[in-house]
Amino acid sequence: MFDPVCPSDLSPIRVGDKWAGMIIRCLEHGTRRFSELRIPLRGITAKALTKSLRALERDGLIQRITHLDRARRVEYDLTPLGRSMLEPMATMCAWAEEHWEELLDAREASTPLQRAR
Amino acid sequence: MFDPVCPSDLSPIRVGDKWAGMIIRCLEHGTRRFSELRIPLRGITAKALTKSLRALERDGLIQRITHLDRARRVEYDLTPLGRSMLEPMATMCAWAEEHWEELLDAREASTPLQRAR
DNA sequence: GTAGTTGGTATCCGATCGGAAACCACGCCG
DNA sequence: CGGCGTGGTTTCCGATCGGATACCAACTAC
Question: Which of A91, A93, A103, A105 is the best residue to mutate to test the B interface, defined by the most B CB atoms within 10 Å of its own CB?
Fold first, then answer.
């Protein structure tokens, strides 16, 4: 789902920490379990995922639900507040897509070790 | 202009590094000089400002103009690309303002050292 | 009973962030 | 001549980020 060479790193806009934005998008279409989230977020470590989830929960964007039926089972879901972020996030994505080429060009054109005095 | 206890730290959305978003807004109404930028960005160090400006320049969002008339004089200006960010940024600000109370409540309600098993 | 899954924690590490403070080249002003 | 303003750079430092690795308790399946 998310490319390890994720192009979204190019965008200057970010939501929370490195993974938060992707997590929110993963939850867009319904609740997900801890280990389900690890699949699309290729290579995320348990520690990193836990940390991001806790931060999102603290900010009231997602909800953590522990089911006690039978085995251990934890689900994560967007809160209404979290869901309300999808709209501004879409705006940002649209901007990034629209100016994709310009962003790439700017990066390429920058000669990192020069600065005219 | 920018409160040292800036409420925008509460928003999970960020543009570039710590200062980039504010710098862009400072340039919204016209070109600014290095030392002019330091005033609204209360307490920013020269190093931090330089770093943010270089990053924004590298990403093609701002333009650095050195005037050689008389004394040393450097001006910073938004590029069209940079200016195009104002719109999505406004969207984000609107979201943050709209959900301001909820964000505050969520932070307050979070008891950092508890986690039910 | 023992191996596997789930949902994590704990520890270590190198890289980066961001502030404080010192320094500096250049030009101007008195 | 000396000091001041401009636009930085350099060094140091503590805090944070994010990855790798090891470990773990509870439950289930074989």
Answer: A91
Residue A93, min C-alpha distance to chain B (Å): 9
Considering only alpha carbons, which residue of chain B is nearest residue A60? Answer: B106
B71-to-A117, B43, B63, B68 alpha-carbon distances in Å: 13, 26, 20, 7
Could you report the per-residue pLDDT of A62-97, keeping only the tens digit for each? 999 999 877 889 999 999 999 999 999 999 999 999
How buried is residue A10: exposed, middle or buried, by Cβ count under 10 Å (0-12/13-18/19+)? Answer: middle
Q: What are phi and psi of B95, to 5 degrees?
A: -60, -50
Dump pLDDT digits (tens) for B36-92.
Answer: 999 999 889 999 999 999 999 999 999 999 998 778 899 999 999 999 999 999 999
Q: Tell whether domain B15-109 is in CATH 1.10.10.10.
A: yes
Instruction: Return the structure tokens found at B41.
Output: 């960005």
Min CA distance, B30 vs chain A (Å)?
21
Domain boundaries, chain B: 15-109
